[in-house]
Specification:
The chain is mostly beta strands. Helices cover about 0% and strands about 55% of the residues.
Length: about 725
């Protein structure tokens, strides 16, 4: 066992009372067993952090009602953390078994690690009392990234005096400097569900934000490994489909591929993929979209989720769902291969991504050509949220069949400076150039923002501009162009520490004014929002606003001006710790000379810790709206009605094995005065068995059906049936 004089000195200091902002890790030769009970002799070598946490909620700055102990050890491969959570009422523990990364309202403990100690970036690792893992990253520049997943080990245990947890976090999943002696930023957070307390070892601000600059320091980490490790994830997948509307009703498909991560240093890695399977187990929900733009879909695919915060580019120059999207004939465009290099060193963060997709053809007709996509991003951080960055994207579509070679390029420079931890200035300049529009003078965009934030006031204002020909849609997400947008947003926040009824309240004032480059007002609005969160976690808030008349240049052949008016929104929700919880939301407004109404409800029933039943009900209508009827080639009055019901039920056998059933039925009705009314009915459902049979390795088995509307009647068509299975194996080398 390795000990030293500093260990003995720090042990004396901590035994006399914890008064410093440092935590010590002790090096060991023998790894502890991760069983959730830190009762092995080896844990006695650790220097205990034996203090009361400081509340973040509900009573900011007060001492947490229950005591916590922490110990840290490490060897040449892994950081070990042990937690002991004392509790005077263990019989009142709120337990919840959920899928990984699900934020359940139960007893919880976790650690934050700022591995470069730069006050800019941190990892977090959490478990609840049932050992449901959560992990992710926090970046002062890009915000919270809860989609980041790593392979690490944890276990929990309960007793008549509280509960405990043990973590084993491999150094290989972290990035850090190559210094011999390391100092990391660190913090710990604990939540007690029955008292609604969340608290940190090192206090965070009253505004509810996690400030990396306020972390303490983790000392004692020396001679850490260089992380030159290879991780392989081979997969195999198979699918059987019944397609009643196809000439060949039965479709058989099989595939295999490999994802590989190569750690080339302590702060950089390469991700390679050969014939990856990016078919989605979880379907994108159907939704109503009355805008001129496609729906923005959330990314779910692991290859793109890794380092997603770094590839969050200004002006939405990169939209990862463009790569491997759905072709016009309904097939998923195959991604033949991809590579990604990401890293960080001395405040410099960089990322390069390359992907190549195959073509989609059917009966001699090409629906989607093959294409090559490239993205590059570099950031130089200067601490506490200040940075300067640059990025470029490129899309190349080679000449194939009857289609000529085409390309799309984009680039941007952006920078941010934070002054005195309160004031933030941000600016960005970008441009695009494509096969059909190569001149920079017509393809520019810029924006500038200023924000002020303390524990009671959060306000921002900004201005953005896009040229008429600015278009990043070959790899990005571009909507309205040729406009100048400005806005002001201010929120006053007030916590009620010690109040027996109220927890916090807020008041928000928002306004924006947008106009086209021709001078027409394209949008203007002012609104007032206020809400209250009660101590029992019941929340209510409401908004009232006024929308001025505006000009929509995309509606009809030449655009049109609309009269607008008042708008309102109300919502409420109850305590998510309850066996039954809900969220209700509704709004109404003047809409294109007519009216719009939307009502949305989410209901959740948890009859047992392992069972969850959810329902989401969505109803949206528009009446007497002035729209252009392209079928009649004339201005017309349109009514729409959208109804959707999504039901799901999940059973967690344990934290690694689950069975879920998800189904959605929806109907969209549209009625123009000058043409016949139409309707479209949709239905899809999935039954999914998920099994994480070892850390990082997954088995999926899904049975699903999908019924699109009949092209003539709009009623449910004959459903397709799909049986899908996939096995992914994690092999660290």
């Amino acid at each position: 066992m390795k000990t030293n004089i500093s260990f003995m000195i720090l042990l004396l200091i901590t035994s006399a009372g914890y008064s410093q902002r440092t935590v010590q890790a002790v090096q060991i030769d023998e790894a502890p067993e991760i069983d959730g009970r830190p009762d092995e002799d080896i844990w006695q070598l650790a220097i205990p952090v034996n203090v009361d946490f400081i509340q973040h909620r509900p009573d900011c700055g007060e001492i947490m009602s229950e005591h916590t102990e922490i110990r840290l050890l490490y060897d040449d491969r892994t950081l070990y953390v042990a937690f002991t959570m004392h509790d005077s009422h263990p019989e009142e523990f709120i337990r919840s078994v959920t899928p990984r990364d699900f934020d359940s309202s139960s007893e919880c403990i976790g650690i934050w690690l700022d591995t470069f100690n730069d006050n800019n970036n941190a990892y977090f690792f959490f478990t609840n009392i049932e050992n449901v893992q959560q992990d992710g990253r926090l970046c002062e520049v890009a915000g919270l990234d809860s989609d980041w997943d790593a392979v690490w080990e944890s276990a929990t245990a309960s007793s008549d005096s509280g509960w405990s947890a043990e973590y084993a976090i491999p150094f290989a999943i972290l990035r850090y400097s190559d210094d011999i002696e390391q100092v990391w930023g660190v913090n710990f957070k604990r939540s007690i569900a029955r008292t609604n307390e969340s608290a940190f070892l090192f206090r965070m601000g009253d505004d509810g934000c996690i400030n990396i600059r306020d972390f303490g320091e983790l000392h004692g980490l020396n001679n850490l490994p260089d992380n030159q490790r290879i991780e392989l994830r081979p997969y195999g997948a198979g699918r059987i489909q019944y397609l009643p509307d196809s000439e060949e009703r039965w479709n058989l498909w099989g595939n295999a591929g490999l994802d590989c991560r190569i750690g080339i240093s302590t702060n950089a890695s390469i991700d390679l993929t050969i014939n990856p399977d990016f078919g989605q187990i979880e379907a994108d929900p159907d939704e109503v979209n009355l805008s001129h733009w496609e729906s923005f879909l959330r990314e779910k695919r692991p290859f793109f989720l890794e380092g997603a915060d770094l590839f969050d580019l200004p002006f939405d120059l990169f939209y990862s769902r463009r790569i491997g999207a759905v072709a016009s004939n309904g097939e998923i465009i195959p991604i033949l291969g991809g590579a990604k290099l990401t890293g960080a060193s001395g405040g410099l963060r960089f990322g390069l991504l390359e992907a190549y997709t195959g073509r989609i053809s059917e009966d001699g007709e090409m629906f989607e050509p093959s294409a090559n996509y490239s993205v590059g991003r570099v950031l130089k951080e200067f601490g506490n949220g200040s940075f300067i960055g640059a990025c470029m994207t490129s899309t190349d579509i080679p000449q194939q069949e009857n289609q000529d070679y085409s390309y799309g390029r984009s680039g941007a420079l952006d920078a941010q400076i934070r002054i005195a931890d309160l004031h933030t200035l941000y600016g960005a300049l970008g441009g695009t150039w494509n096969s059909y529009a190569c001149e920079w003078s017509d393809n520019l965009a810029y924006m500038g923002t200023y924000s002020f934030k303390n524990e009671r006031l959060d306000c921002s204002t900004g201005l953005s501009y896009r040229d008429n020909m600015f278009n990043a849609n070959m790899i990005g997400y571009t909507t309205s162009t040729g406009n100048l947008n400005s806005w002001v947003d201010m929120t006053l926040f007030h916590p009620f520490s010690g109040n027996p009824t109220l927890q916090e309240a807020w008041l928000n004032i928002y306004g924006h004014y947008d106009q086209t480059l021709g001078g027409e007002i394209s949008s203007r609005r002012i609104s007032l929002n206020s809400g209250v969160l009660f101590r029992n976690w019941f929340q209510v808030d409401g908004t009232i606003g006024y929308v001025g008349s505006q000009f929509d240049k995309y509606e009809g052949p030449d655009g049109v001006a609309y009269d607008q008016g008042m708008s309102w929104r109300l919502s409420c929700s109850n305590d998510s710790r309850k066996a039954f919880n809900f969220y209700l939301w509704g709004n109404g407004s003047t809409y294109r000379n007519g009216t719009s109404r939307t009502f949305w409800t989410w209901l959740n029933l948890k009859p047992a810790p392992h069972v969850s039943i959810e329902a989401s009900i969505d109803w949206s209508t528009t009446s007497d709206a002035l729209r252009y009827n392209w079928n009649s080639d004339a201005w017309d009055i349109r009514d729409t009605d959208w109804k959707s019901l999504e039901l799901s039920c999940s059973y967690m056998f344990n934290t690694t094995l689950s069975l879920s059933v998800v189904s959605q039925i929806s109907r969209f009705e549209s009625d123009y005065e000058l043409s016949e009314a139409s309707e479209s009915n949709y239905h899809w459902s999935n039954i999914l068995l998920s099994w994480r049979f070892k850390p990082g390795s997954m088995f999926y088995f899904m049975v699903g059906e999908n019924a699109d509307p009949d092209e003539i009647t709009g009623e449910y068509g004959e459903p397709d049936l799909t049986v899908f299975s996939k096995l992914t194996w994690f092999l660290p080398i």
